[in-house]
Amino acid sequence: MDEASQYLTGTHDFASFRNTGTDLHTTIRTIHTIFRTPAGVLPPDCLELTWTFEANGFLKQMVRNLMGLLVATGQGRLEPSEVLAILHSRDRRKAPQTAPACGLTMKRVWYAEDLLESQDS
To answer: What domains are there in the chain, each with its CATH number?
Structure first.
């Protein structure tokens, strides 16, 4: 999952991870970082992972769709190296199923104005 997440960072066309009915000017987004907690080697008794996505914007249900991809790689149903082919296909049907909403939480949203204010402080 960690290796697969690295293929998702950077500027890409995330059309493969948008839901149908989403009418947008562009599906290009930049993911700055994706990381998990706990980091590093997981303890054998680890039952929960927290994934953090930081980007300049997200498509509708993009994070749920990306988590479906990461889970599929973690389960061995996809190789991490297949992530780029899915991205480049721009076809939602090529990506794994959407992760269920249970367990996913949006903790914070930063807007450009917030970032400018914090840099001025």
So the answer is: 2-120 (3.30.70.660)
